[in-house]
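[audit] Reproducing an earlier prediction to check determinism. Same input, same settings, fresh worker. If the tokens differ from the archived copy the diff job will pick it up downstream; this log only records the rerun itself.
[audit] input (576 residues):
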Amino acid sequence: MIKTLMKEIKQYKKASFLTIFYVIIEVVFEILIPFMMAKIIDDGIQAQNINAIIQYGLIMLVLVIGTLSTGFLAGKYAAYASTGFAANLRDAMYTHIQTYSFSNIDKYSTAGLVTRLTTDVTNVQNSYQMLIRMCIRAPMNLICAMAMALMIHVNLSMIFVGAICFLVIVLGIIMFFAMNYFNQAFPKYDDLNESVQENVVGIRVVKSFVREKFENKKFEKASQNIYKLFVKAESVLAFNNPVMMVAVYSCILLLSWFGAKSIVAGTLTTGELTSLFSYVMNILMSLMMLSMAFVMITMSIASGKRISEVINEQSDLVSPEKALKEVKNGQIDFNHVTFSYKHGTGEPVLKDIDLHIASGETIGIIGGTGSAKSSLISLISRLYDVDEGCVLVGNEDVRNYHLEVLRDEVAVVLQNNVLFSGTILENLRWGKEDATLEECQEACRLACADDFIQEFPQQYNTYIEQGGTNVSGGQKQRLCIARALLKKPKILILDDSTSAVDTATDASIQKSFKEYIPTTTKIIISQRISSVQNADRIIVLDNGIIDGFASHEELLKTNDIYQAIYETQMKGKEEA
């Protein structure tokens, strides 16, 4: 974990080392101030030597200015290093998530990833800032103050040693119990964020079913779980201050008692006793800072582990070393393919698929819910790897291609495809980054989207809200089809992506495919016979097995499942 996190310090190493350097100088200056105070009292005030008072006073002034200056610089560089470190962690996580296969993404909830990118990174950021400041300053202060105290009076310094031992034991017990509660608390943030995410995304469903009270109770439960754990943790940490005060006042009382006796005995001066009082505060406050720093570090360890999990997660799908950089054509071959989502251990969703599609063909796929239609087409762009057999595109195994090259030549339009926040033009240019306005307009005309776009006041500069909430389902699907057409891919897959448009528009879109991308292999998944009946051939899938593969006319004669679907839909039309 530490090695993974430390890699992301990168360009902020210099700032981190400068922080440590200035902290050390700050501590040295600060430790010398009580020593100068003792000199002013003993060599100046008691000796009635005005020159000594001025001399040591000026040195103290320089030390104070030096302490303030180095403290400011240490804080500045610590903030720069910690925020930069946090930014690098977020970039590393986000960039790495982009490389995940679907099976990797399935391991984490969306809310969990958001928590890791926000709350967990903030915890690590705060901890790192404390590490390069407090965890350097406190031990240095402790060691230097203890050394100065020993130089002044060895026997009285044993009071400090006793206080240190007492605090180390008690604060260690406090931290042990607090750490357990913090380790339980941070994973609960995932549940809280998941509750918020589900509610916001599904707010229309929540309101239509009048489930606001239920959602409030669910959120309150997740919030209460975090609240209870933090109350327990903070209740334990509440002992820090009383314990510290006991140590401080005990040291002051003991120093006053034994120090007074030493002054009477002539083994200690008034100035030295005054400096010892300053050093006892330095020592005990250093321990207090260390205890708080350790609490923060303890909190961040759980966060650091969660961040490291994301960064160290290895994608199941990677490009080979000598990857192919060109897809010759849209020919697709499934050679006795068996596939399960849990490779080798799960129930196969596709069983011994032997399928051969020529480049430029239009293929329909039809079947009941759960027949593995989407699973079949996900193997073409290598969103998953097969368990047995192989999938070929352009007469080459998909595992031999560079992933970006393969996926750039396979355009997929899903039933619930996503539009991103931005203008219509910006969304369309996901298909072709440098597409001109004219190219976008042509693609939209082919996808039957231009008409409704022209009705918007801003037309192609109309802003699309996050998730496309300000356009209808049918409009969203047509925009996604236009976006895919701009790619002019070797293979175009429509996964029930015209379900929200009427049959006339559906037919018009399919006609456009034949005219605009005649050499592209087109695969159309649909529940409607009307959407696939004009395809060159139609695949009938049943429970992960190909039950039929022929033209519409042949399937009507030979395939029972296709006949049943056709009769049901035709009967429904007649009754309507």
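[audit] rerun output stored. Observation attached for the diff report: DSSP finds 22 helices and twelve strands in the chain.
[audit] end
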